Amino acid sequence: MANDEPRPVISVAGAKPGPVLFVNAGVHGGEYPAVEAVIRLGKTLDPKKISGTVILMPVLNLPAFRTRTPFVCPIDSVNPNRVFPGDPHGTYSEQMTHALINEFVGHADAYVDLHGGDIPEALVPFVISRAGDNEVAEKSKAIAMAFGLPYVLTVSKPIQPSKGSSSYAAAAEKGVPSILAEAGGVGQMQDDAVALLYRGVINVMHHLGMIAGETPAISAADTASATGKGSAADTAASTLLTRFEWVYTMSAGMWYPKVAAGDAVDEGEQIGTVGDLFGDTVEKVVSPVNGVVLFLTINPSVLENGLLMGIGARPD
Ligand SMILES: [Zn+2]
Question: Does the reported pTM lie above 0.85?
Answer without folding.
Answer: yes
